[in-house]
């Protein structure tokens, strides 16, 4: 099977970006099992590649290469396979099938929506491969059926998410932001983090205030104001489950980050730097402390899932 490194002419390749939650306000759990969210997403320049080609009707295979590939299921549990199957079921399972190859760079279970990015990549790649002429709004509807983060992973940029996080509105963001990511050796279960949040916040509100300070800082292009406004209601739960995260966040602050935040449900920690030079310096110093698996420098906002070749 071909890989994204050496694509054959019959492969369609899509690049899908990771995300950071610049603000994540969380309400009390509903009877449906979901929590109301008010979040500001930003796509950043850490990418997975999803490649697809025609397979026999109703046959869907997936292989995964790259960082932490051994932690990604290669069967029907894989979100990219679920995405391809969902699209095929709607447009004609008797004639559609796909082989899928995912090249991982976004951390697995790291709070950066890597699985959702792969689902978004598969939706876009398969719609092109099968010549479905599916509109972006339709793809986001399919994405919402797969997971709350998938519609944003298709959209990209910077956006306000409400409801489950899948009701999106673009947010004006001036300039580019420089982030340093501390990647953890171990994954963190999103359900476990939300469960601990519920235990810590039995009276969490149903109605959430919008994160206006974050949005105002983005409109102004003020990195210092954005760093001061970063907020994540899940951070206390994540740091209880992974106490080492508190030390990483403290180290980033001591090393001069404008702001620090646990990304999503964690365990990836994101540090905002004043500029590229400050990000380089911060990444070097943070790497030298040996507190995390790896350190990456990224920028945002960037587009969501985008076609590379067809």
TrEMBL record:
The gene is ispE. Residues 217-288 form the GHMP kinase C-terminal domain. ATP binds at residues 107-117. Residues 78-157 form the GHMP kinase N-terminal domain. It catalyses: 4-CDP-2-C-methyl-D-erythritol + ATP = 4-CDP-2-C-methyl-D-erythritol 2-phosphate + ADP + H(+). Belongs to the GHMP kinase family. IspE subfamily. This is 4-diphosphocytidyl-2-C-methyl-D-erythritol kinase. Keywords: ATP-binding, Isoprene biosynthesis, Kinase, Nucleotide-binding, Transferase. It comes from Micropruina glycogenica. The lineage of its organism: Bacteria, Bacillati, Actinomycetota, Actinomycetes, Propionibacteriales.
